[in-house]
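Thread title: Can someone regenerate the structure for this chain?

I was given the following input by a collaborator and told the matching structure tokens would be attached. They weren't. Posting the sequence so someone can regenerate them.
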Amino acid sequence: MGFIDVIKARAKANKKVIVLPETEDRRTYEATAQILKEGIADIVLIGSEEAIKKGSEGLDISGAKIVDPATSERTQAYIDKLVELRSKKGMTPEQAKEILLNQYLYYGVMMVKMGDADGMVSGACHSTADTLRPCLQILKTKPGTKLVSAFFLMVVPNCEYGANGTFIFADSGLNQNPNPEELAAIAASSAESFKLLVEEEPIVGMLSHSTKGSAKHADVDKVVEATRIAKEEHPELKLDGEFQLDAAIVPSVGASKAPCSDVAGKANVLVFPDLDAGNIGYKLVQRLAKAEAYGPITQGIAKPVNDLSRGCSAEDIVGVVAITSVQCQAQ
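Best answer:
Regenerated them for you:
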């Protein structure tokens, strides 16, 4: 059983309600048909019956629940709640109504906020900023979490490194240039996500172009400080750095470059120093090693909402819905 098959099986065992708000995109319907056929989750589609019928022509999505903001009996409650949540920002009932009737991502997040859905997946035709803005405004961060971050779950075929080729790459989707405190928080959240999704012990490598002082630069200092903070705040974690990539994941290189580390050569959670490195890294592995890349998966939001790459396939959406469902089970 491959990684995503295991995740799908876990999702099926305790089905959750997932909102897919991007009903202007054909991939949403293709994914919905497959999710319902496999019994992975219960799906809510947002939009008018007529538009959804037209967009899903030729596909069986009869098991999905269709919610039309213009006619739903819940819309007024969402308007009232959005006004309450955003009153300090000057939100009026008229503005809230305008947003919820026309921006389905906001409507989907309100469904999650009000308990009418467990999670949401979006991003096939919206930017990460568009997907996450309503989450940060409405759902806020998870208690005890310092910031929201994003990771890719990478499954590399025929790979002896990591957890049988499975890794988390973070942050590869959201935080541009995290400071040491933020990098430490990303490491802690990523370890928690790895344990939940992969069900193995997270071993966290803090990545750099330097291994244990082999280079001197302010960028290296940042990772050294982040490692110190993370170890101090989370002594229970197997976490170390700073490591070059090979020292983090290749046992022989780790033993040579960092012989005193119990993480070197064994890392399965890779924390990149900035978004450039994380984004480039995951795409290199996806394209050159033909790895499965699931994400960007968000962590640190009060309830599970996940982003998609705009280049995603319908199959990618199915995978992210399954991962979101497992995150919902842990709530």
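The radius of gyration is 21 Å.
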